[in-house]
Amino acid sequence: TREGILATLTSHPNHFLAKTIGYEQSLSSQLVKDGFKTFFVRGDSKYYSPELNILFNLGFQNIIGKETFAKQPSMGNYLSFAGVPDYFVFREVLEVLDENKNEKIFTTVLTTDTHPGKRPFYKELGYPKPPEWLSDWGEAGVLLSYLFYHDHDVAVFMESLKNSEHWTDDILVILTADHCRPPSVTLSQVPKVDMDPLCRIPLIFLSP
After folding, report:
1. 105 DSSP β-pair partners
2. Is pTM beyond 0.70 here?
């Protein structure tokens, strides 16, 4: 994750070398110089690994993580060691946009629901049911159901964004990943899956 964040924001995947040169290629730092307010929104802890200091050094002025969500009484049922559901992460991003609608802002979002772990909250949050045939695929089907739910989260977020006042010629949404899915026995059970550990990640640009 750390290397993926660095490569995305600085084009430099080596943390130690990037630190030595002061993260001078950081996109977020450059945007701060251009008058942008910068946000990093994630569902897991902002203290995960040593990333908090790295994110500040990359130029993020506001870092929102599990600790921020934990202050909301209504979040009690959804907090876990892994953080909070992406459902709430995307809602937080929309709130950030609303609260800073007259500002130039740059927001990076790190979601976590595609990682392994039980998610008992999908039904009560109104998620659609994954295709029935996934239940025949064992652990591989569980993995693909996480991706199904994540696709739903992204679709709902984009629909909300497009129906808001923020969807103007001044906005650009970039969908990408910090890393691919690591090779595993579970992954190998997915038909036609690419097991190359350096396999491709998505890079999608969306604007009005």
Report:
1. 37
2. yes
